[in-house]
Amino acid sequence: MEQLQRLACVIAETHIRDLKRKNGNALISNAGNQGEVNRDQLASGLVDNCLYAARNMACGDLERESYAMLCEMISLTGREYTITTHGEAVLESMHRHALSKPVKRINH
User: Does residue 74 lie in a domain region?
Assistant: First the structure.
């Protein structure tokens, strides 16, 4: 489970790094709603979603299948890690879903 969490953190850090390079910050917006991407929350959401998907697929080894799902989201080759096209689509979907929730979270 620790490897799963570490890979999810690397994906989250890489995504936030790319957002900051592209936009100058880690803010995302959708349908008039705006929020800042948080590494820990994003990593936790990635792990939870992968475990849920693996459980629904009735896989024998949930952790291994979840790890494989996360591996599809990032390219670990080259000088810098990069988010794959599939990973970008998943992250964009997660952001849209998070911003469309009616309950606003309070950040301290």
Answer: yes
The two three-digit tokens of residue 32, written as one number = 């008039």
| Cβ count within 10 A of residue 61 | 10
Q: What are 38-49's pLDDT values in tens digits?
A: 999 999 999 999
Question: Is 108 part of a structural domain of the chain?
Answer: no
Cα 78 to Cα 61: distance, rounded to the nearest angstrom: 30
Structure tokens at 71: 């591996």
**What is the model's pTM?**
0.87
Q: Does residue 106 sit within a domain?
A: no
Cβ atoms 74, 82 nearer than 8 A: yes
